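chain below, 251 aa
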Amino acid sequence: MSKLNQIIAIEKGIKSRVCKEVSKMHNLIQKPELFNGMAKVYQPIDEEDIQSESLPPESKKVQLIATEVLNDLAKEKSEYYDVTARKDWTNNVAKADVVVDGEILIADAPVTYLLTLEKELVDVRTFIEHLPILDTSEDWHFDISSGLSKTKETQTHRTKKKAKAIVLHPPTKEHPAQTQLVSEDILVGYWNTVKHSGAISRKDKVQLLEKAETLVNAVKEAREAANDVEEIRAPKIGQTIFGYLFGSEQI
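prediction:
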């Protein structure tokens, strides 16, 4: 088992690294375009157009998936939560239970750790607040194979300019016909588009924020209720916290 001073020595380095990584993720999730993608396939109407004009499909790959970002957040934060827990459990000062919905989520948490955890959970709540949500103007369904939300396929038409001669004045015995070339839009094909997104639904975001708020309040209550050096073994706080917030499958 480590000594308390050894735990304190490594805690600062872990905290600094985790803060940098989370800051990078924080910047990324504020770019909604990274969560969006699409696939377009051109469908010509006439067989002649297939031979004379072939348009390649267009696509944009989803670069970020909200659930994966949350999982990365959980991994980074868990390391910091756990090393801080090792230090604070060893301090062996005032303790209290963190209780959510009548159930003990964290038992005998030292007051010093509760102070840190409260601040950290506020940061997690702020992180969740910045997550983009699915465009509510679209109807989305979750595609298990890709891990993305997708819309139904929509179709838009594609036109081409085509020259057409019109007769301004018909021919007479004295004068030839007067004509003029004009262009008109001719329907030549369709774009079939499916939008992709790695964002989460508004409902899921609200539920995550409610859980985060519940945790913050539970830690505040525990801190207020709390009274009371080889290392004392501490529980895996990160796994407990993010297992509750995001579900155990996300850790």
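DSSP finds six helices and eight strands in the chain. Residues 4-29 form the longest helix (26 residues).
thats it, cya
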